[in-house]
Structure formats: structure tokens, C-alpha cells
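To start, one record:
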Amino acid sequence: MKRTELEIRITDASDGILAPEELRQLEADLQAFPDLMADYHAIMKLPDIEPVYPKPNNAVFAARIAEIRNQISENEELSTNSPVFYELSLVWFKRYALAASLMVVALTSVFSLLQPGPEYLDSTVMMDELFYPAEESAADVYVTYLDEFTLD
């Protein structure tokens, strides 16, 4: 048997696919490849994880799930007892949340598409104001003040 076939069968053995007779045949075939035999034994020797990860107790989980279901049903009964909250929170919100968000998007896009007034049409005035502000800021005055005291 070829080495690659043995490696595939080792993988099958580690997955638990091989029957006991096939495992004995694999071990017999591995006698010709001592390095694969060592790998096979290393793979097949599984550590005992029971002390670290004990098997779950399904009865405990079933009881916890039943408790959660009871709490959910109690909360549903409370929500049907207060129909105003139920109506506002579930029915109206679902119905109008999408419409309200679409309205906000539509309004913002309409405002962005509106033409600006005549005072904004002259781009040279805007550019001049950006590059040469009419009023000096406090930072400009401070920089000028510092420039006067620097040594040349």
C-alpha cells in the first residue's frame, strides 16, 4: 500500500470511520512505515477530557429552557394586558419606521439639490473670503505679535 493511501486511512481512523478489522489491517500495513506508525499512535492516543469538560446533564438544560419559555409566555401576557404599549411599540413602529426614515432621506436630498441664493453664486467672492478673511482672528493677532519679538 502506498504512503499517501496510508495517510488517508490514518485520517479515516482518527475520524472513527474505519471498522475494527480495517484498523487491524491498517496497523499491519503501517509496520512497513515506522514514522507513520508513530504518527498513527500519536493521533489515536486521545487525552481524557472528561475531568475538564464533563458531559452535560440534559435534564438541567431542559429545565432551564422550560423556565425561559415560561418567562417569555408571561411577558407576552403582560404585553397583551397593556394594548397601548403593544400597539405603539410593535405595530406602529414596524409600520412607520421605514416610512419615516425614507422621508428623512428624501428631505435631506431635496435640500441638497436646491439652488443657492444669488449671494452664493459669485465664487470669486467666496474664494477671496476663504483665502483673505475680512476680519483678523485672535490666532492671527497672536502670530503677528510673536513675529514682532523674534530675533533676526
Q: What stands out?
A: The helical segments are 3-15, 20-29, 34-44, 58-81, 83-113, 123-131, 138-149. The chain has seven helices and no strands.
